[in-house]
Amino acid sequence: MYDIQIEFHNLMMMAQRCGRLDRLAQLADDLLPVFDTLEPLDGDATKLAWICRGGAVCNARNRLVNTEVMLVSLQGLGLFTALADALAHAPDAAARSHPFVARTAQMAAAHLLRWGNASARAQWMRMAGANPQDVKDGNSALFYTDKPLWMLGVHAHLAGIAAVQPEVLRAVAVPGSAAHTELVEGVAALLRFFERRLSLQTVQSDRLAGSVQVADVDAGYWRLFATNRFAGYTGSQVPAVCESVEGGGMRARVLVDAAKVPPVKNLGWDFSHARRLVQVLDALQRNRHALQAWYGLAPERLPAPDLAQAFAAQLVAGVWNGDAQRPLFANYWGGANGWYRVAYDNGTGACYAGYPPFGLSNSFPTGGYAIWGAYYPVIDDLARSIYALADSADPAAVAFIRKHYGGLSPAASASSRMVEQLMFWPTLVR
User: Fold this and answer.
1) CB hemisphere CA count around 202 (13 angstroms)
2) Dihedral of alpha carbons 29, 150, 18, 416, sign
3) How far apart are CA 133 and CA 200, in angstroms?
4) Which residues of the chain, if any, have pLDDT below 50?
5) What are 96-103's contacts with CB under 8 Å, separation 24+?
6) In Å, how far are 12, 17, 194, 408, 419 from 279, measured between CA atoms?
């Protein structure tokens, strides 16, 4: 479900922009069987969940096997609810009545109720009261992560569905019921948490011809996190290498002392994870009126209508390297471009030495960022430059793509390149 969202969300959004109801229905047909894999959580038939039963990422070593992996389920629901929302608003009656719409809405509401219980809501409100100085070490307890962000997106799409098809939620959370009240309290706490972790400032940018407002998320909270401790390191020596170990396999060996690398004071999200902002901010803006109607939210409780534009401005002014012919992007949303995830262990046994400066640039074509060209045409230009470079036979262009956008390179496997193109090309279509 995690990978399905990453690989197909841009395609779904293109189909929505272009009015391709046939493509939306096809996606719904293909995804509907995912709901047949729901299982009782902890033996409780009233609580259905997707349980991870194995695979490379879900194993005994990282203790995820035979558990519900919340982020995986949430990210999948991020796509599912976006698709169901699009179908629910379709001009065609057959698309509006696709069984995927009701099934998705009901399961999304059930999961939001479980993940947004009273304990979780209280925790979000406590975290909303924190500040970066409260982070004293590498502990991640105070972080604003992609989980609450995805929950906001799912809430937004749920409201969008409820606005036009309230009957699909009648058995789950009819307005005035205790369940609906819990959903209202949940989205209110999530909005407050998100608001508190936003950073807005006005900067002068020659790239945008003047003064613009830029946005960041969770700035300063991630500065001491272990996988980000090399965010300020741009030295010539690689900070870690992968080496063979006795008995087989590989293990990372750190070569540079992290304690000697000064933390980046305002460090927040990395460029790869920030791609979630594209889809979630679209969900919030698209369903702005529905959120007010179904949840009873005052307009000022919602993010500003121009928030996505402020993030797009930061992409241009602070993340992009400024080269329109050979565009690259910093590893961190705030503009820091040191190493990312040095000697990272994700529990699979694979070895990750780390991502060097500009090492996450591939997140631009695959992450959906190009649709922010609607705010600043230069973003469209950057996407077209990458497309042209990937299509070029010029040796310098081929080498550039192979180094920085390897998935789009002819050197990649045919299947890998096809998936990368599937993620990138839809973002070029208006």
Assistant:
1) 2
2) negative
3) 18
4) none
5) 96/164, 96/165, 98/25, 98/28, 99/32, 100/28, 100/29, 100/31, 100/32, 101/28, 101/161, 101/165, 101/168, 102/165, 102/168, 103/32, 103/35
6) 11, 13, 15, 22, 19
| pLDDT on residue 40 | 96
- How much is the pLDDT for 182? 98
Pairing mode of beta strands 250-254, 240-244: antiparallel
State the pairing for strand pair 44-49/198-205.
Answer: unpaired
Backbone angles phi, psi at 105, to 5 degrees: -60, -45
β-strand partners of 44: 41
**Helix intervals (H) in 97-166:** 99-115, 118-128, 146-164
pLDDT value of position 349 = 77
Q: Are 154 and 81 in contact (CB under 8 A)?
A: yes
pLDDT at 245: 86
Instruction: Transcribe 294-332 into DSSP letters.
Output: HH---GGGSPPTTHHHHHHHHIIIIIB-S-SSS--B-SB
Q: Residue with structure tokens 């992009």?
A: 320
Closest by CA position to 9, among listed 364, 278, 385, 381:
278
pLDDT of residue 345: 85
Residue 412: count other Cβ atoms within 10 Å of its Cβ: 17
Q: What is the pLDDT of residue 39?
A: 97
- Residue pair 105/169 in contact (Cβ under 8 Å)? The answer is yes
Contact 90, 84 (CB under 8 A): no
Where do we find the tokens 């310098």?
396
- pTM for the predicted model, two decimal places: 0.96
Determine the residue type at 318: G
- Which pLDDT score is estimated for 56? 81
Residues 222-246 have pLDDT tens digits of: 999 998 999 999 999 999 999 998 8
C-alpha closest to that of 161 among 278, 80, 275: 80
Beta bridge partners of 251: 243
DSSP string, 159-190: HHHHHH-GGGGHHHH-TTSHHHHHHHHHHHHH
Q: Distance (Å, rounded) from C-alpha 374 to C-alpha 35?
A: 35
Q: Which two tokens stand for residue 215?
A: 């946005």
- In order of 80, 156, 200, 201, 283, the CA distances from 20 in angstroms are 17, 22, 36, 38, 19
| Alpha-helix runs per DSSP H in 198-252 | none
Which among 309, 271, 275 has a CA at the least distance from the CA of 75?
Answer: 275
